[in-house]
Amino acid sequence: MRSFKSSWFAKAAKKAHISDQELARAVSQAILGQADDLGGGIFKKRLNKNGHRAIILSKARDFWIYEYVFAKKDRDNIDEAELRAFRELAKAYATLTDQQITSLIENRDWIEIELEMKS
Length: 119
What we know:
By secondary structure, this protein is α+β, with helices and mostly antiparallel strands. Helix content is 38%, strand content 30%.
């Protein structure tokens, strides 16, 4: 199981003081069904002591990509147009080859997060 954050997400998470350790825990929880499933490989997960929400895209739960984060105080949720756009992006991600994923990592478009799998 691999987990990534987009370069945009990485900058926003750093500004919001959301650590990779917290992101790893949140993906582990999402894998266990402890996230809002928005359909089409899109999940919404609470972060940062419930102060922020993350949008995570999943490719058949083979890998997870943190794509967007927002503060709960700034907005309630994403809108329908954003949800449709995330679903299209998730479809595109689902077609990526291992070589393309490696290229995204090498170009720093995606940053890999080490998952904690503790019981």
